[in-house]
Amino acid sequence: MRISAARGASTLYLSSEAKPSVRVDGELQNLEGEPVLSGRDVESLLLTLMPERSHEALRTGATSEWICDIEEVGRVRCMSFRDHSGPGGVFRLMPTRTISAEQLGLPRAMQALATEPEGMVLVAGPRSSGKRTVISAFVDLINRSRRDHVITIEREINVVHPRG
What we know:
Order of helices and strands: HEEEHHEEEHHH
Helix content: 25-40%
Shape: elongated
Number of domains: 2
Structural class: alpha+beta
Strand content: 15-25%
Strand order of the largest sheet: 3-2-1-6-5-4
Mean pLDDT: 88
Number of helices: 6
CATH class of the largest domain: Alpha Beta
CATH architecture of the largest domain: 2-Layer Sandwich
CATH topology of the largest domain: Beta-Lactamase
């Protein structure tokens, strides 16, 4: 994962009987210089990273999702699976710093929602479309502009924001 982070990857893919691959700037590429991973290699790595409650899912072939914190990498959203070649994993590296609303290019009208004293903002879209990045930028904008409580409803907490 450290190699993936150093190469600016957003995602690391591990599959049995294949070289590790990464997604950098939207392009999928093999990690050159890395060996083909056996099913045993992948399973061993997954068992090391995943919480104990997910071990049975890996053994039975069910998918499992969790988040872990990895030193020098940050928070990683993980998913394990089993396919025709054996166990595999997908690891989404989450930015260690929040991208600001300005950097993200959120329209002024959307940024203005952060000044409303009350209400609800719903962010929806397909998987990997940037919903969490938008939510993170929006929460950061609120935290920088006022002292308030913000509640997000999501499966896992991906970005931990400091108190404003």
